[in-house]
Structure formats: structure tokens, C-alpha cells
Amino acid sequence: MGHFIPTHTTARTEVTTQLFVLYIISQHGIPTTLISVRDPKFTSKLWKEQISLLGTKLAMSSAYHPQTDGQTKRLNQIVEQLLRAACKDEISKWCLHLHILEFAYNNATHAATGQTSFFLYYGRHPLTPQEPTASATVQPAYDFITTMHQLWDRTHKRLLDIQQQQKRQADRHRTDHTITIGDQVLLDSRNLDISHLPSKLQPHFCGPFLVEAQTILV
Question: Which tens digit of pLDDT belongs to each residue from 57-109?
Fold first, then answer.
């Protein structure tokens, strides 16, 4: 299940913790394992200590890990595109629309599973907002339902467009390699501090290094 949570890039660890409790723990309970990217909020001593006291194992993604970083970036791009489609007339109210966007995202079929996140989590498909078929005696009520349906419709259509774009743009030439403990690997030197070597003599890759542990499965 995806959760779209309004916050700020400058939010302190304490605020992030409150959001984690409000949106994640309150709905799903305390996780046994938490995988996160290496944002300063999640590498701070306070965050690590809190997660440890909850009894949750904290698994950080590998530094410069393209799969994890790519997944995070793609989801952020999806949210941004959905917001643009949903809030084109009310940009300042973007945070009010996040819950409908989250609903649409979780009710979209994902290629990896062939199912929606909603169905996999609840075992059923939800009812979705429909356009009112009868006139209302209270106009604000009619306007509210109509607006919600229009927002859902725009978001759902945009999500389908995004999925088609991603399918067309997928890297057909990429070959995934499963790395396991005991393998030997080379590290891309662009992400290593080898400034002590002359720039023209710096190797493109360093190693080989023996894989001794696996911190994340993608």
C-alpha cells in the first residue's frame, strides 16, 4: 500500500516520527523491518534509536543503489504528475487532494503483481467515486460529490497514461543480476573517494570485493 503524506523537506526527525505513527503505525501496526533510503532524517541517531526501541529492524538501502533510488524517484515523479493533473485549477490546495490520489494509486493494477494494492491488502475491490445520477436538494452536497468524481476521474486517467509511458520507456536492454553473499563485485568509482589518485589515472571500477552481507532485496 502506498501512502502519500504531506510534509516539508525541512521537517525535523521529530515531525517525521509523528507522521510515521499517524499514517503508518496507526493503520498497519509496528513493522518488523523498515527499509529506507539514506536521507539524513533516517540516518540520524534519534530515528535509529526510536526504531530500535519499537523492535523494528532498520535496513538502509545501499549507498548509490540504483534500483532503490530509482524506485523512490519514479514514485515521486508519479505523485508529481498526478498532482499536476488533479490540481491544475487549485494548485494551492494540493495537500487536500493527496488522499484521493493515494486511493487511485492503490486501486491501480501494478505490473509486478497483476493486482491492485487495495485488493492484495483487503482481499476485495473498493467502490470508487461515481458521478451523481440524481439531483440534490442541497447544492453543496451535489457539488462536493461531483468534484470528488471529477478529481478521481482525472487522476485515474492520468495514472493509466503514466503506466503506458513507463512501459514504453522501459530499458529493454537492461539485464538484472542477482548478487548474493559470497559473490565478488566491482564498485563504480564515481561514488568512491579516490581523489588521492590523479584524475586521468582513476579506475572506472574498484575491486573486486567480496559480498559479506545483504542489506536489501529489490
Answer: 988 776 655 565 567 777 888 888 888 877 766 777 788 888 888 999 999 88
Phi-psi region of 51 (alpha: psi -120 to 50; beta: other; left: phi over 0): alpha
Kindly list the distances between the CA atom of residue 51 and the CA atoms of 17, 33, 42, 57, 58, in Å, as whole numbers in the listed order: 9, 9, 10, 7, 7
**DSSP letters for 24-36:** IIHHH---SEEEE
Please, what is the Cα angle at 135 between 134 and 140, to 5 degrees?
A: 125
Under a CB-based contact definition with an 8 Å cutoff, are residues 107 and 162 in contact?
Answer: no
Domain-wise residue ranges, the chain: 1-60, 74-176, 177-218
List beta partners, residue 185: 209
**pLDDT, tens only, 149-197:** 888 888 888 888 877 777 776 656 555 667 888 888 888 777 677 767 6
Q: Which residues pair with 206 in a beta bridge?
A: 187
Q: Which residues contact 59 (CB under 8 A, 6 or more apart)?
A: 33, 34, 35, 36, 215, 216
Handedness of CA 121, 122, 128, 129 (dihedral sign): negative
Q: Which burial class, exposed, middle or buried, applies to 165 when counting CB atoms under 10 A from its CB (0-12, 13-18, 19+)? A: exposed
